[in-house]
Amino acid sequence: MDDDGLSYSARGATAPASRPWPASPPGFRRFERTVTIGRGEDAWAAAGQAVLQWEVKRRSGFAVTPADGGGIGVREGGRYTITAGRGPFVVREPVEVVAVVDTRDRRGFASGTRWGHPVSGEEAFVVHRDADGRVLLTLRSLTRAAPAGRWRLLFPVLLLAQLGARTRYVRALP
After folding, report:
1. pLDDT-derived band of residue 4, with 50, 70 and 90 as boundaries?
2. Residue 78 included in any domain
């Protein structure tokens, strides 16, 4: 698909810097959900720092390991391995951060699937605040079956696992 190792060609399609989310490329399942996670400057500072350290994923039961020798902090172009499961049922998900936003009122990132990931697409985690001080978390994803490999046949099961993960994501930040 993508010559830089992504398993899809729509790099940055979850548009974490954009409010609202623009049109998506065809062929993906599109998901977006926004939840209030707090109010005020302290909540904003804590959530903004947490999202840029992969805490939504980590507090949801995933391990995040830099795969390119860099640190754990989110950085555009950074490559990571997300690990889920236990014992013999461990799934490794290679990803690359394809977009980062870090402004006065919006912080977050999008990660794209690399070859070998069980699905193909992109996921974004964005913390933002509105004029009255509410701090919100927005999740966005574009998902389709992996372009090749054994995971293609398990795509319906992976969609159920994705639903479970999203439930944990919305509870990950106080």
Report:
1. low
2. yes
